[in-house]
Amino acid sequence: MPNEFLNEYEPLLIKEIRDTPRLKFPNKSLLLAACAACIGGTFQYGYNVSVINAPTEYVQTFINQTWRERYQADISEHVLTLCWSTIVSIFTIGGLIGASIGGTLSVKLGRKGTLLTNNIFALLAALLMGISYSVGVFELLIIGRLVCGINAGIGICVQPLYLGEIAPTALRGAMGMFTSIFITGGILTGQVIGLRELLGGEEYWPILLSTTCIPAILQLAILPWFPESPRYLLIDKGDNERCKKALKQLHGVADCDGEWDDIEKEKNNLLGFEAMKPWDLFADRSVRWQLLSIILLGAAQQLNGINAIYFYADYVFKRSGIPSEKIPYVTVGTGACECLTALTCGMLIECLGRKILITGGYTLMSICCILFTLTLTFQDASPVVPYLSMACVFAFILSFGLGPGGVTNILTTELFTQNARPAAYMIAGSVNWLSFFFVGLVFPFMVIGLQQYCFMFFLVICFMVATYIFCVIPETKNKTFLEIQTEFKSSSNGKAVSVDGAGANLLSTSI
């Protein structure tokens, strides 16, 4: 009897064993394709965010010298501050422009084609900023930073899209973490290159700002050797042969059949549907929860207090007794800390899943907000308190990198199907850049008005986002795009029944 029972259910047992997720590693071609996409994509974003900090004093001196040559008078302090803040903040305006056109370009030119074309902006920006000093026109720095922002906006929109579409389902989370790893790697590289011992000296700042051309040149040399997104080739272009060839190159001959079946199912499900525009997403009630989720997560990624932590870092380090000339090296330590957590998150995401990491990250950030407020309030209570504040700085950065910093872009890829994904990235990117601009504009006034208690505002943001994720967003690990969409639809129907039948809270249904 036991043997008959075993024989009867043997196919089911074998199927169950086969369906159990196994630890997989990307093959060399897939790994190199991801690196080639990232080096000219989100790496540029991180690099250009951090590299502008090192030459602050020298650029302001250059602006004053140029002004004096033109008008035979020193520039006023207010106008100098306005010029410098414009150079820094116009990067976000460029990012918003890039995010608003990135999705459209990815449909017209393809994911890979858009990334390659995007390097034109990086090379132009490097040229403008590099020659600004020699020609004595500081306005070229403003234009160059604007063009840098356009490059970063397109890159941060299209590169995660490319990674999410070339990755097999079992590796989609780990591959998506390349976005966060290269952003933090770009920030760290900008901090290191900006040290005085390298290109941080007064005579080198034009060269420092023009180094944004190096990642662009690397991508132009490497990425053409790798294929376009297989999903784009089959679903958007209907090119079966190129899709199969791309799958074989990226996944190997043994694993390409399963991915082909998955892409074909999604194509059949989307027959008759064209690529959606952002306004189509707002009008489509079937994706309202996905859309609300990416808008909230995109805004929270900038409004969660990570920028405030970096703003306060110098103050905390000085109070801890670190000499002013040594603070840039400690700042490099914060960049290395964030880069390390991005790598850690990349290794954990396929084991723990997206939901645990991002919910846990925001929860830990909420706790850090409370502790940081207390340590800043009682800085003079004991010589130990400044060191506790410094520990809070690193703990907050670790918590951000553990989940919110990396998982947010992955969820934007996973919550939408092929025809809606570019529009979703345009909306998420626009929200992210607008929030970035809002923080840069409003945060200094928040600090003046609330001082250390501004972290109570960030506490509320982090706690509310953690609660929303826990209640609304499903776990997407090891699920196809169609399975995730189906789960959202069934969950939305459950919410509607709950609200209509019992008047329950709309967010009370856990998915």
UniProtKB/TrEMBL annotation:
TM annotation in the entry: 30-47, 79-103, 115-136, 142-163, 175-193, 205-226, 291-312, 327-349, 356-378, 384-411, 423-449, 455-473
Classification via PANTHER family: MAJOR FACILITATOR SUPERFAMILY (MFS) PROFILE DOMAIN-CONTAINING PROTEIN, SOLUTE CARRIER FAMILY 2
Domain Major facilitator superfamily (MFS) profile residues, every copy: 34-477
Keyword Protein biosynthesis: no
Source lineage: Eukaryota, Metazoa, Chordata, Craniata, Vertebrata
Membrane topology: Multi-pass membrane protein
Pfam families recorded: Sugar_tr (PF00083)
Keyword Transport: yes
One GO cellular component term noted in the UniProt record for this chain: plasma membrane
Subcellular compartments: Membrane
Signal sequence, start to end: none
UniProt GO MF annotations: D-glucose transmembrane transporter activity
Name the record gives this protein: Solute carrier family 2, facilitated glucose transporter member 11-like
GO terms classed as biological process: D-glucose import; dehydroascorbic acid transport
Keyword entries, A-Z: Membrane, Transmembrane, Transmembrane helix, Transport
Protein family (similarity comment): Belongs to the major facilitator superfamily. Sugar transporter (TC 2.A.1.1) family.
SUPFAM superfamilies, sorted: MFS general substrate transporter
